[in-house]
User: Fold these one by one.
Assistant:
Number 1:
Amino acid sequence: MNNQIYLDNAATTKVAPEVFEVVKKYSEELYGNAGSLHTLGQKSKNAIIEAKNILKAKLGAKTGDIIFTGCGTEANNLAIKGIVLSLPLEQKRHLIISEIEHDCVLNASKWLAQLGINVDVTYLPVDKQGLINPQDVKNLLRPETVLVSVMQANNEIGTIEPIAEIGKICRENKVLFHTDASQSFTKFPLNIEEDYVDMVTINAHKIHGPKGVAALYVKENINLTPLLHGGGQEKGFRSGTENIPGIMGFATAVNLHTKSDILNMTNLRDNFIKQILSEIPNTSLNGHPTLRLCNNINISFEGINAPSLVLMLDSYGISASVSSACNSLSLEPSHVARAIRGTSAKMDTIRFSLSKYTTEAELSFTFDKLKQIVESLRK
Ligand SMILES: Cc1ncc(COP(=O)(O)O)c(C=O)c1O
């Protein structure tokens, strides 16, 4: 067994060997600037077109465009700020955002709301399993609603949201719909047409692609104000020299998850959850039991201090997480924990997130250590 047991794949993943080879090739051999006229430049330009076609095919998008960005945070900021700022300043603009979105969506919308430019944000509630009721979206729509943003799957608790139903309501009411699929892309089906989606955030480093590259898919005829102004790359939506090694690495990662990888992760996930709940007393699962990302395990251990548990697991070479990477240094329960557990939310929760490389032997070792540590911490 590998000495390191990495169970923090929702934070980031290791680069797959086949991705690494492609990144290397586009760094050492085909390193031209896509804006250059010479052959190397044109090869880079063609590589971008090829990568976009691969991503669009995965999303079932016949039209529209992919805008490459530097991270998922940037893609989400572009979707939210880009729409709101593209509309006349005097126009009233209303956004609907779920209360369990990633901080980058929440903070981008909060920033817009405090600019003093006629922007109002409503936060959609979730139930105890983190699920959104599409009827709530319908009830909260206003004549001035311009955008609804609901993630496809939550990064902490793994709950998969009913995005097709939400998207349909938005389409019927002529409101744009954005979904952040940073965690779910390639692990759960997403189809631009069938899910009535106008914009989607996808992220390379969550799927064994390189860090420093993500993308926003945008349907045709959507006007976005760019975040970065400059040389006009990415049709003016995202200036800056394109990251070809990253982009080609991302395109290579898109088809790494096979059906059998998804099935394996689901089985490992369910067995691990079952074992914890049945053999470690006073534990509970957060998130939905079945409408759940194939790699997400989020458990509360009554009476346990989660950072202590994470650090003790780490001393055995096991990497797990306190809620999410963004919240790991906080002393307070995350906004997601508070949304589903209310005032009873405590710092007693650990997230294990699997990858296609996770093995049964690794989880068995992890379970033994986990049981032992929880028993000793409780004493
Ligand atoms: C759901 C979700 N959205 C957005 C992000 C932000 O992605 P990045 O760290 O690449 O900016 C993350 C990263 O954890 C995420 O899980």
Note: The chain has a mean pLDDT of 96.
Number 2:
Amino acid sequence: MGCKDIIKPLMGNKRFNHCINVSKAAQILAKRFGEDENKAKIAGILHDITKEFSYDEHINMIKKFNIDVSNLEISTEKLLHSITGSAYVKNILNINDNDILNSIRYHTTGRPGMSTLEKIIFVADFVSDERDYQGVDEMRKLVDKGLDEAVFGGLCFTIEALLKSKLPIHINTVLAYNEYVEKNKKGKNK
Ligand SMILES: [Fe+2]
Ligand SMILES: [Fe+2]
């Protein structure tokens, strides 16, 4: 059974279409930035596999697989699907490639020291074909500049949106943002 058939019954058409598009965008980015295209394709299609789970389903998975979660993660449904998604792919689909699992695990928050595949899934989720949020054109332009430029843009976008809504910012997002600020500083001093 292909990955498409696996995710199809777990979500509505709109989200299924999003996953197909993220997978496509991830493959294009993988080709461009020298990453394994097949891994990008798989991670892309599976990244939101548990997004339509109920809160109880997320909590049950976390208990069942004994996953460490912070208070912020438990109280933020948007963060739960990356955690349970990665656990689903590992424990139920038996995919053991850590890079694929981490790219699902960190696709919402980002984290410092992201691998190329993690960056690709993080960015692909922002620029997939059906995306039409305010700022998507800017994000697409950043992708043309480079992968790190796009990741930094995505982190800024995430933090700005959370600030505007007075929502908490996950520590991994802050640490990743700081990492890029530092990188950019060094780049300018060269
Ligand atoms: Fe997601
Ligand atoms: Fe997504």
Note: The pocket of fe (ii) ion (ligand 2) is lined by residues 18, 22, 47-48, 125 (CB under 6 Å).
